[in-house]
Amino acid sequence: MNDQNTALIRSFYDAFARRDPDAMERCYHPDVTFGDPVFQDLEGRARVMGMWRMLLGRDGDIKVTVRDVAARDHDGAAHWTARYAFGKTARQVVNEVDALFRFEDGLIIRHHDEFDFKHWSKMALGRPVGLFFGWTPMFRATIRGRAMRSLEEFIDAR
Questions:
Q1: Which of 69, 90, 72 is nearest to 80 (CA)?
Q2: What is the pLDDT of residue 119?
Q3: Which residues cross the membrane (predicted)?
Q4: Which of 25, 45, 97, 131 has the fewest CB within 10 Å, making it most exposed?
């Protein structure tokens, strides 16, 4: 176990729970990369933090909790839960996420989140869309495309 890296992960999620993107950003290496089922490959602190700032700006009621935080010298993991009302549908979502981390220079250089996209789409979009289409590659590509366009617009507007 590496107590410093464990504390870094906890600091990141504590800041996330407080809706403090500046404190979240201080946990990231300038060359950080991020990926998840929606935002598959974001490179650099500006783009990764753009995503977090955009998401925090949209979900005024987001609640974040973290558990099972563990870290070694070069890698770590955590499980976190996000509870929020999703976009235009305002459907309640409880997203269970497994996070993996890599560290460099005492900061997070790689952050990868994994969650069940099909389960998420059923909660976020309901029936029939989420239930019948949430598992299809075309639907996933549509969601990813919309998310990336939103991120680009958000970054450009800043």
A1: 69
A2: 87
A3: none
A4: 131
Q: How far apart are CA 110 and CA 104, in angstroms?
A: 9
Domain boundary assignment for the chain: 3-116
What are residue 76's DSSP bridge partners? 71, 101
For the domain spanning 3-116, the CATH number is 3.10.450.50
Q: Which two tokens stand for residue 136?
A: 């299809």
What pLDDT is stored for residue 92 in this prediction?
92
Burial 82-106 (b: 16+ CB within 10 A, else e): bebebeeeeeebebebebebbbeee
DSSP code of residue 38: S
Answer yes or no: is pLDDT of 154 > 60.
yes
| pLDDT 10s digits, 116-150 | 988 888 888 777 665 556 667 887 888 899 999 99
Q: Given phi > 0 = left and psi -120 to 50 = alpha, else beta, which region is 85?
A: beta
The single-letter DSSP state of residue 32 is E
User: What was the pLDDT predicted at 81?
Assistant: 98
